[in-house]
Amino acid sequence: MSSPDAAPTALPLPRKRRRASTGAGLGRAAAPKPADAPTPISLVGLPGSGKSTVAQLLAQLLQRRWVDLDDRIELVSGRSIPELFAEGEDRFRTVETEVLRGVLAVPTGVVVATGGGIVTIGRNREVLTARSTVVWLDVPVEVLLDRLRADATERPLLDDDDPAAALAGLALVRRPLYEEVAAHRVDASGDPEQVANAVERLLAPPVASTP
């Protein structure tokens, strides 16, 4: 387990070949990107990985706006996340997809904190990779458990008699999907400010060498 004081590190992702996206299957073509518009940044990761906190801090560093996708879903639907899940996970995922598409429809450079299960839907993975730079906040399950025990947020998919087993099951299914969409993978075990700084460094344009 990483020390809480240890600086977060960028973890290498396996090299993979991606198909060029044509917008097919996204419901509508991606909006044209102005030459000077920054690319949106989407943070993905398991529950408790710090996506909302890091998104807010990263947005401050980059002087951009940020969106918590779950908050936006509740605003758009007029219902809480647990209420939507009570109608069935499929219902929640349908609303989640529509809200994601709306948030990323215009390339305003927004920093988006996504829900932990957003990558389980293929259309969401297409939207994320076509319209944003995806950063995976990767945290060991045991660290996530410690965080979630100290967090009163209601998480429907972890409402289980054995949350450790439930979280391990989510990790088994979702980690390959995070790897599929992520342009960058960051060890997010440490302090959120350190993680945000690490992401900022990863996304900084390379400095041109002087001849």
Descriptive report:
This protein is an alpha/beta fold. It contains 8 helices and 6 strands; from the N terminus they run ββαβαααβαβααβα. The protein has a 6-stranded mixed β-sheet, sandwiched between helices. Helix 1 packs across helix 8, helix 2 packs across helix 4 and helix 6 crosses helix 7. The longest helix is centred in the last third of the chain and has 19 residues. The N terminus is likely disordered.
Outline the secondary-structure elements.
Elements: E1 10-11, E2 41-44, H1 51-62, E3 66-68, H2 69-77, H3 81-86, H4 89-103, E4 111-113, H5 122-131, E5 133-138, H6 141-149, H7 163-181, E6 184-187, H8 192-203
Query: What is the molecular shape?
Result: globular
Count of β-strands: 6
Radius of gyration: 17 Å
Order of helices and strands: EEHEHHHEHEHHEH
Termini separation: 43 Å
- Poorly predicted ranges: 1-6, 14-35
Percent range of helical residues: 40-55%
Derived structural class = alpha/beta
Q: What percent strand?
A: 5-15%
Mean pLDDT reading: 82
Strand sequence of the main sheet, in spatial order? Answer: 1-6-5-2-4-3
Discrete helix count = 8
Largest sheet properties: 6 strands, mixed
